[in-house]
Amino acid sequence: MTRVELRYEVFARRHGEIHSGTPVSAEEFRDVLRRSTLGARRPVDDLPRLGRMLDNSNLIVTAREPVRSLLIGISRCVTDFAYCCYCSDLAVDEAVQRQGVGRELLRLTREAAGDDATLLLVAAPNARDYYPRIGMHHVDRCFAWPRSG
User: What are the φ and ψ backbone dihedral angles of 135, each rounded to 5 degrees?
Assistant: First the structure.
């Protein structure tokens, strides 16, 4: 895909109210995951699960190609808009990577989450070097219980 002007949107749900943006369908989400490097680590063959992932995210920032409205990037987060914002997915279509799409998605995510919220994410193995280059700090104090399903 050649360099194009993109349309960015923020979809935020606070206290049960939608504040702006266009919701993303499970099919669109699956497609952009597959076109990014993240598809290998997400349940792309389970549309109902992808739907639940979207339904229970309260901050989603998207990048769309404006003519066809094709979803080419997404930042999918869970946040309290006060202290913490966890970015579960940052996916950018491989055809437009290295053009600042991911950086802009994260900038808009930080802006929407608010200055009081720390933005956290777990880097995909092949993206570990990307985040320090855009100014994020490495944190080694994270712990997890892996999912069983």
Answer: 100, 5
Average pLDDT over residues 6-35: 83
Residue 45 burial class via C-beta count within 10 angstroms: exposed 0-12, middle 13-18, buried 19 and up: exposed
Both tokens of 42, joined, read 């997400």
Averaged pLDDT, 25-48? 96
Please check the confidence at residue 5 and state whether its pLDDT lies above 80. Answer: no
Average pLDDT over residues 91-120: 94
Q: Return the CATH class of domain 7-133.
A: alpha beta
Q: Domains of the chain: which residue ranges? A: 7-133
Distance CA 36, CA 147 (A): 22
Which structure tokens are listed for 122?
Answer: 């777990």
